[in-house]
Design goal:
Elements: H1 2-33, H2 38-45, H3 48-81, H4 87-93, H5 96-99, H6 102-113, H7 118-125, H8 134-144, H9 146-159, H10 162-170, H11 175-204, H12 207-212, H13 223-232, H14 236-261
Helix pairs in contact: 1-14, 2-14, 3-8, 3-9, 3-11, 9-11, 10-11, 11-14, 13-14
Amino acid sequence: MINKVFKATVRSVLIGYLIVLLLIPIGSIYFKGFSLGWEPFWQEVTGPLAWKSILLTIKLSIVSTIIQAIVGTIIAYVLVRYTFRGKSILNSMVDLPFSLPTSVAGLMFLTLLGPSSPLGVWLDHAGIKLLYNQTAIVIGLVFVTFPFVIRTVQPLLEQIDPAEEQASFTLGASRLYTFCRIVFPAVFPGILAGSMLAFSRSLAEFGAISLISGNLPGKTMVASVYIYGETQNYNPEGAAAISLVLLTLSLLILWIINVLTRGKGRLA
């Protein structure tokens, strides 16, 4: 009897926690976004600057996600399969973007690549612009989403018996062929899940991007910065409308991850 009461209490607390911290805030965004009706909502979303900011956010999020899928998989493979000096330090630094405030990350890139820094001066003389453009946005997104693919692929790599790869090498297969036929199929669910999480995170990034993108309307202004601008211009309905689009995309991505990884076990 006591056990049943305890389970019911814990279940009620968890459900209440989810309702207060997740469902109510999410519901409030949908309510605010549609508070003036469908037509005003559609006008806000399809406005020239709003629509360009959404498309730019999606486009650059896709670019950064592709980079993460490739580079993250390679780094995860190196961390799992190779032993070298400083490996533990490198492995622990993978999670640095999780603990570092994104505004600090933006300031870090400003300090590193700014016109007053040695590297910034050299890049400027070489005609390379890495700040206040779309390249800067991709750099910022890659940094803040760096751990996702690595941390979802690593556990799957650790489950692969190295003897399988050795057997492939013994039979004369190349490293590339072995990776494509043995390693890649096993880690593909992790690559997919990590990439989708990185994409979803990229959609919402604000701190670093607001400092290094230049925030030029229609050119380098991403959706999160546009939302902030709408709140400063006393247009909460417009801000909620764009937020609703990003929120719906994120929820859809999380649902897809859940469907694709169902039955495959936890990836991270």
